[in-house]
DNA sequence: CACCGGATGGACTCCAAGGTCCCGTTTTCC
DNA sequence: GGAAAACGGGACCTTGGAGTCCATCCGGTG
């Protein structure tokens, strides 16, 4: 969860550069394939072929498929948080949120809403099947929401947001709108619902902005 | 999609009462099992056992697993729409929306947010794997949103909602909040995020209510 | 009441996919 | 530079689960 490296190897024995590269190729292939086909519908042979490795490599680096999936959960979590950190850690204004929204929408519109969020798509498939994966995903969502709520806290501290705004709840609402938007966009193969959902959440946050016309006494 | 009966049999030959009962038992078992384990992780043997039928029954009523899944999509769609129609077709006030929200939250809190929405959980698993299932799910979501937007239209026509409220967009936003809320609640095994998400959407709708203090000239 | 087609049970086949193993190659460390 | 261990290829094993088949049962109809 909290590793700096994107792909954290199970460090129980020495590992060479080549080994790390192979492990990353496997994870990368699993990442791509499982995003479009789903976890259960992707076979190890698919991954072996796409990653240009062999069966023994898979089992050299991962005990079994479940462990590979768990590693993928960390891998994706790290990727998403890294990307989101870049977009959110300097968030200080409402227009920053709008830019963030636009980037997500644009990325998802490239494939007409298909595939959805890498984390959300795993969640429904894994959460009732692998408790460990579920809790890791849950923590990743929490960390993601924290990136948002931290930004909102900064906005509140600087007087942009009213004092009665609750950054945590706003962040949860925004995340739910994002994930629900991904899901509806995926079902419709069209980004429009995702835009509507995000705009609703942003509008809601906007309603907590201190109006320039208000508080003129300060 | 638009059948009145919950379980619409493939009417290519005559079918007895007993046959219908068996088909329903199969669909009902598939419904329950696939909700908790997911579609791909549920085997036909699981369904056979849970429905107290035999292999020949499954293949007597459904050509293969894919067709069973597609039938399940219709089955669930009909169930959800039937349930939602009961709760939404007389929607005329904001407090009606709150009651609707409370019913959903309470139902989901019974299992601590697990399993999520029957439609949403299938969507991410099937939409990139079975185009026919995807479009059926998409239509079901659209019909569900229409139940909401129809209610909002009634509220707008009766002067409760401002004229600049867009019932379709509000309904989409509410649905996204609901689905995203289900997803986060499922990940967290806790209904709280779902409540926050729904409250955000309701708050947003509330902001379009005609204020009693406003429009006093009418 | 005899017949026929749908309904049913359950053994069986077959294959895809997870997992094992062996042996050769490369890297690392002393 | 040599031993030990990581890395790698791919044939092979095993099993779970989808799908088939056939004998039997039942129930409606002439």
Automatic annotation (TrEMBL), chains A, B:
Classification via SUPFAM superfamilies: Homeodomain-like, Tetracyclin repressor-like, C-terminal domain
GO molecular function: DNA binding
Database matches in InterPro entries: Homeodomain-like_sf, HTH_TetR, Tet_transcr_reg_TetR-rel_C_sf, YxaF_TetR_C
Domain HTH tetR-type: 20-80
Residues of the signal peptide: none
Pfam families recorded: TetR_C_13_2, TetR_N
Chaperone in keyword set: no
Record PROSITE patterns: HTH_TETR_2 (PS50977)
Transmembrane stretches, start-end: none
Sorted UniProt keywords: DNA-binding, Transcription, Transcription regulation
Source lineage: Bacteria, Bacillati, Actinomycetota, Actinomycetes, Micromonosporales
Domain of life of the native organism: Bacteria
PANTHER family: HTH-TYPE TRANSCRIPTIONAL REGULATOR YJDC, TRANSCRIPTIONAL REGULATORY PROTEIN
Gene3D superfamilies associated with the record: Tetracycline Repressor, domain 2
Protein name per the record: TetR family transcriptional regulator
Location of the DNA-binding region in this protein: 43-62
């Amino acid at each position: 969860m909290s590793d700096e490296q994107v792909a954290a190897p199970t460090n129980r024995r020495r590992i060479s550069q080549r080994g790390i590269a192979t492990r990353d190729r496997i994870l990368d292939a699993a990442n791509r394939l499982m995003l479009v086909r789903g976890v259960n519908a992707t076979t190890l042979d698919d991954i072996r072929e796409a990653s240009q490795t062999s069966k023994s490599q898979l089992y050299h680096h991962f005990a079994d498929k479940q462990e590979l999936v768990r590693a993928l959960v960390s891998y994706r979590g790290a990727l998403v948080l890294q990307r989101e950190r870049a977009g959110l850690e300097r968030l200080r204004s409402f227009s920053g949120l709008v830019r963030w929204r636009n980037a997500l929408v644009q990325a998802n519109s490239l494939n007409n809403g298909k595939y959805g969020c890498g984390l959300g798509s795993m969640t429904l498939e894994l959460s009732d099947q692998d408790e460990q994966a579920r809790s890791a995903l849950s923590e990743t969502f929490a960390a993601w929401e924290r990136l948002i709520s931290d930004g909102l806290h900064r906005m509140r501290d600087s007087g942009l947001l009213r004092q009665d705004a609750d950054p945590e709840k706003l962040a949860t609402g925004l995340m739910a709108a994002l994930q629900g938007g991904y899901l509806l966009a995926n079902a419709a193969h069209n980004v429009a619902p995702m835009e509507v959902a995000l705009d609703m959440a942003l509008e809601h946050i906007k309603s907590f902005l201190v109006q320039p016309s208000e508080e003129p006494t300060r």
